[in-house]
Amino acid sequence: MYIDGSEVVDASGNLKYGGERSPEIAKIYAAIGWDPEERTYIEGYEQKPIQWIRIHNLPDLAYFNHAQHVSAGQIECQTCHGPVQEMEEVYQFSELTMGWCINCHRETEIKGDNGYYAGSIDGSASISDRLVERFHDEKITAANIGGLECGKCHY
Question: Is the model's pTM score more than 0.70?
């Protein structure tokens, strides 16, 4: 792995110090009280929030729950954030506008077999079974199960 052109991890995965460190990594060290030269935590250091540069910023009137999309929807991070693992510098990949989100809710198929929908509301048929019963062989999307309701994303 290379940061700022200097090798910081050797082929065996051992950390190598002495090269230049990424300013972004330095922010993490500063927040958690890590001394990279001494390779120890600073005694008595009061941890601080990491000073991130905000890339994705939704309006205050919108609510977005990562857990709902990642756990229930099984949406990969790259769907919205793009190929961050390949980005030299992170940038906003998707519009993240209301229209963009609505379009995703209309097109993205619900994976009823992912375990989130395996439970039952009242002890009878699973949510997954109820969705199949209601929509038969149709593609089931977030829009079909209330994903276009204003209150899902807006306060």
Answer: no
Is the C-alpha dihedral spanning 101, 106, 108, 112 positive or negative? positive
List, for residues 34-65, the tens digit of each pLDDT value. 988 888 999 999 999 888 788 888 889 999 99
Domain range list for the chain: 2-41, 66-153
Separation CA 19–CA 8 (nearest Å): 7
Dihedral sign for Cα 50, 53, 55, 60, please: positive
Q: Which of 33, 24, 20 lies closest to 8 in space, CA to CA?
A: 20
Q: How much of the chain, in percent, has pLDDT values that exceed 70?
A: 77
Two tokens at 24? 């972004």
